[in-house]
Design goal:
Blueprint lengths: L1 H9 L3 H37 L11 H6 L8
Length: 75
């Protein structure tokens, strides 16, 4: 197991190794979230510069536009 190997090689307690791994993992996840948000902002800028316009009622029709499904009607 990687935890036990890290305990032996780094000469730290198992709890300390786990805490360090969690901190690194959380920091990595935060960077991924920031990158995702930045990508969305970049797409918005591309759309502005290219003068793309979508439907004005897209927020009300999001399911229909994404999934080709109008949930307001019973089937």
């Amino acid at each position: 197991m990687q935890i036990n190997l890290a305990v032996r090689t780094q000469k730290k307690s198992k709890a300390e190794i786990i805490r360090m791994a969690l901190e690194k993992g959380m920091a990595h996840m935060s960077r991924q979230d920031e990158n995702s948000v930045q990508s969305l902002f970049d797409l918005v800028e591309i759309g502005k510069h290219a003068h793309f316009h979508g439907p004005k009622d897209s927020s009300a029709r999001i399911d229909e536009l994404l999934w080709d499904k109008d949930w307001s009607r019973d089937e």
